[in-house]
Amino acid sequence: MFKRAFLVITVLILGINISEAQVFIKTSDLFPVNKPDSKAGELNIIQSPSADTLISRYILANRFLNGGMQGFRIQIYRGSGRAAREESNKVRADFIDVYRDIPSYAEYAEPGWFLVRVGDYRTRMEGTKTLYMIRKKYPNAYMVPDVINFPDQKKD
User: Fold this and answer.
1) Is the pLDDT of residue 13 over 70?
2) Where along the chain do its domains lie?
3) CATH of domain 68-148
4) DSSP per-residue codes, the chain
5) Over the stretch 134-148, which tens digit does the pLDDT of each residue have?
6) pLDDT tens column, 42-82
């Protein structure tokens, strides 16, 4: 009897904690209403509740990307071995000297690969022009899917 009551209480507590972890975000919460003066306009969002569900799912899915978004980068070096770290640093330094305006990233991937990836592109087409330019110096460069930094919208 005691075991059964303990089990029921444990299941209820876990169920309450799980339901609290699933946060539902409404679109109207994303656009707060501030009316500091009477000249401000009013924003009315009229939409299906299923749109709020999709927005909540999108926000929860992207929460695990550590401040980035899914996109593409150009991989110019991948190597393993004793001198791979030094060689990847040399490749990255050489790239920075030639292409100052393209960001570069040194990464490590298990089980012992040192990578140099460059650029932050939202789509494969966005990075294709840069890929062809980079292939003149790094003929083995290719596009890879990666978590990228959010692009600067003021540049566009």
Assistant:
1) yes
2) 68-148
3) 3.30.70.1070
4) -HHHHHHHHHHHHHHHHHHHHS----HHHHS----SSTT---------HHHHHHHHHHHHHHGGGSSEEEEEEEEEEEE-STTHHHHHHHHHHHHHHH-TTS-EEEEEETTTEEEEEEEEESSHHHHHHHHHHHTTT-TT-EEEEEEEEPP-TTT-
5) 999 999 999 999 988
6) 767 787 878 878 877 777 776 666 667 889 999 999 999 88
